[in-house]
Fold this protein.
Amino acid sequence: MGNDNRPFILTKGSFTSTGRYTAATAHTNNERSWSSLYFGLQSVLRSQMFGLPLSGTDVCGYKSSGDNLDEELCLRWYQLATFFPLARHSQDATGARTEPYMFKTYQTQVKKTMHDRMQYLRLLYTCMFETTDSGGTCLDPIEFRYAVSSDKFKSQLPDVTNSFLFAGSLLVSPIMNATNGATTFPAYFPAGNWVNMADWTVVQGKDYYVQLNVQDTVNVHLAPGALIPFQNNSNMALMTSADTIQAPITLIANRD
């Protein structure tokens, strides 16, 4: 194989030193349930620690739970996968179809979520290159980088483990439970001033939970002192990674 060609091996299983030989790990054959949504995040976080940074789950679950489609569950899965290095849709041949164009209630929100991912591709590619070149992780539990009081870990969701840090710069707060029509949900914030990437408002974190608005896309906040590359896609003009090459890049900084 020449220098311009590289093998891409996608594996569903792993063993000691798998990361040395495979490019990606898919946590597949997962159930379509709220608990599987949560455990999918934990699987991806573990893969980061195991030296398998390019990983992800089957968005909206692979195994059907019946003929009725829970659109909100699928929407929250797409929102969570905004920052998964490997974000793919896959499902078995039975049960309700989960392709976004089949949605009746949340189709617009899923479309916005897919375009939201394009805004952060430069940061994703940079982080993946750095982990490949020097080791490290792109997704981390909050407690890996910030001091979290022990009483903030709850016996039921939502708690600190709902959220994660991306590229050491972004606090991602996905919704892991059915909202049942609620317009806000609790999310943990470490101490410091965190900038909302959707509207530039500031959340003052105090090692406690803050009520966030339920948005069409996942809630993302820039960490104190962080600086990231960003490509605004609010008009949804960026459709492919090739489009991002021609689009301007903005540096966003949180001076705290």
User: Anything to note?
Assistant: The mean pLDDT is 89. The first strand starts at residue 10 and ends at 11.
